[in-house]
Amino acid sequence: MLTLSKKAITTITTTFTKPHSLSSMAATEETLRKTLAEKLSAVEIQANTVRSLKSSSASKPDIDAAVQALNNLKLEKSSIEKSLQSLLSGSDSREAFRQSVNNTLERRLFYIPSFKIYRGVAGFYDYGPPGCAVKSNVLAFWRQHFVLEENMLEVDCPSVTPEVVLKASGHVEKFTDLMVKDEKTGTCYRADHLLKDYCNEKLQKDLTLSSDKAAELKHVLAMLDDFSSQELGAKIKEYGITAPETKNPLSDPYPFNLMFQTSIGPSGLAPGFMRPETAQGIFVNFKDLYYYNGNKLPFAAAQIGQAFRNEISPRQGLLRVREFTLAEIEHFVDPEDKSHPKYAEVADLEFFMFPREEQMTGQSAKRIRLGDAVSKGIVNNETLGYFIGRVYLFLTRLGIDKDRLRFRQHLANEMAHYAADCWDAEIECSYGWIECVGIADRSAYDLRAHSEKSGTLLVAQEKFSEPKEVEKLVINPIKKELGLAFKGNQKKVVEALEAMNEKEALDMKAALDSKGEVEFEVCTLGKTVTINKNMVTIHKEIKKEHQRVFTPSVIEPSFGIGRIIYCLYEHTFYTRSSKAGDEQLNVFRFPSLVAPIKCTVFPLVQNQKYEDVAKLISKSLTAAGISHKIDITGTSIGKRYARTDELGVPFAVTVDSTTSVTIRERDSKDQVRVDVEKAASVIREVSEGHRTWEDVWSTFPHHSSTTAED
Ligand code: AMP
């Protein structure tokens, strides 16, 4: 979405305990900073008291008591310093956690930095085999949860887009970020990122920062998206921020368009861009899609595809990249009726919402019942609310932790002027709160912009069952009089009169009725002309109309698939001790729905008969369409389990006899014994969600695994 106003379980030990809510951390930090400042001055005052007692040769007991009080104050001061330090170094444990997730992801080829043998290029990543499988599972679920459930019309448009389309949408002019350059080396940085780094570093490392200064830096952080180029430049100067590597001075900030430009065909005369979003492909096809849908509203179109953004200095690993997969929905609706037939299905959902009001008054996100948010007008309309609820269900069913998911409303100044309301699904990970899905009511902006530029009306009609009488304003230019007065310019004056909106026309009528003439600006002539009452009649008329023609509003949920997947990796990752206690083993707690492989099959020991059984089960799993891996290496069973846990494989079938096998569940490490013939169907049922592991556990005999896990 282009925002035109933009300036812008018990045996488990996790290495990363859930972070406290950021706002409660902020409140604690502020209190600690204030208390520390108070203690520092109390220490100073007491030190002065000791000094003056000594210089005035006060009695020994008095001096000793004052010294004791001073020492107590010093102890209290250092204890506060330690608390503040440990609060601020929360970021260190976040980084250590991130490192361990990313090491596992990279080692097991969930992702690979692109072009690695040529040292890579920032902002580009390849998905390796398990990463591809996770992505394709996420997309399959997206299609099922949205496209299938809502009968959406899926399209697939080119990535290369002609300039005219992106001029109409506003991207050519406004899809920019503010950049600064190292004045000596020319290295480019995102201006707001440098300011953000400066503020964060000061807040995290400078214990002497007064609470006022800390509040100022936090205010700057909150306002970052709102700063104009001049304001950003002024702050960079005020804080003496220089280029991070060289410490050279920086240029003033200036806008950099994030689109990758290209040219279509060999002539170089047809400029184009790699699309920065998939939405425009849907808007330009509105007329055909509306017709395909039987000229009925509401309907939604959906598209999954690559988007390209030439990010200035991509950081944050998989979260900010230069090419990524977007999944977007454009739900077209009558602006006069934004109700949704399935709204009641989500109205009782309750989750963390962070309305504008709470953000402005420094409160934190609260659990709110969606239906209440809509009925109180916090969420603008039912359809927007419906999609917020569906996005919540989508993300939590994928495995996103509901306590680290919130829906944050855009502040008024963050929102495009034409937008009715916008909410971001933000997921908390080691990088902080990350916008992963944007859900916006964009009103009629996009369709109007493309109607104007292309000359093709992108509108919908509501046919009345019976003709309706409507009052219409009729502007009737008297061509004969206008011709006499304006001769060759008559046509332009007539067009300008006919183009007046209702208010302009009524103002003109009032002036003509009272004064007999009025000054009227004709833009196409570049001058003002005098219109008198013989030249135009303006009146209201009752007319019969058979239909209403209008530009539909669009409600757009836009999903950054890579960001959702990365947050899912962090939310499902944990480590646990090996049985011997000498090793920390990594596990991804993927729900079966997204697990790259649903099951592994391995003979307990290398033995032809066991191998044959394993192959038989593998064949049945293939026939049932269950992704699995057969491992007939001689590696110890414990090592083989650990290897598959690290890929997040939820179930393992171990062949230790020719008549029955064991099935192990990844997180509990519990095992049941199942007949060979039943193994594949149990795996299918449990991995497709038709049966729970608890049900399997209560149906089949339990298998003790004391030796197996070693
Ligand atoms: P936007 O159109 O800017 O609202 O972006 C739509 C979605 O795309 C966001 O909610 C993000 O999830 C995702 N996104 C935006 N920029 C990037 C990027 N540089 N890398 C990865 N995902 C992105």
UniProtKB/TrEMBL annotation:
One biological process GO term for this chain? Answer: glycyl-tRNA aminoacylation
Which SMART domains does the protein's record reference?
A: WHEP-TRS
Which parts of the sequence belong to the Aminoacyl-transfer RNA synthetases class-II family profile domain?
Answer: 236-591
Principal location class: cytoplasm
Cross-referenced InterPro entries, in alphabetical order?
aa-tRNA-synt_IIb, aa-tRNA-synth_II, aa-tRNA-synth_II/BPL/LPL, Anticodon-bd, Anticodon-bd_dom_sf, Gly-tRNA_synthase/POLG2, GlyRS-like_core, tRNA-synt_gly
Q: What PROSITE patterns does the record tag this protein with? A: AA_TRNA_LIGASE_II, WHEP_TRS_2
Q: What class of enzyme is it?
A: ligase
In what residue span(s) does the WHEP-TRS domain sit?
A: 35-91
Report one GO cellular component.
cytoplasm
Q: Where in the cell is it found?
A: Cytoplasm
Documented EC number(s) = 6.1.1.14
Family according to the record: Belongs to the class-II aminoacyl-tRNA synthetase family.
What does the subunit comment say? Homodimer.
Native source organism of the sequence = Medicago truncatula (Barrel medic)
Q: Which CDD domains match?
A: GlyRS-like_core (cd00774), GlyRS_anticodon (cd00858)
Q: Which reaction does it catalyse?
A: tRNA(Gly) + glycine + ATP = glycyl-tRNA(Gly) + AMP + diphosphate
UniProtKB keywords: Aminoacyl-tRNA synthetase, ATP-binding, Cytoplasm, Ligase, Nucleotide-binding, Protein biosynthesis, Transferase
Q: Which NCBIfam families match?
A: glyS_dimeric, PRK04173.1
Q: What's the protein here called?
A: glycine--tRNA ligase
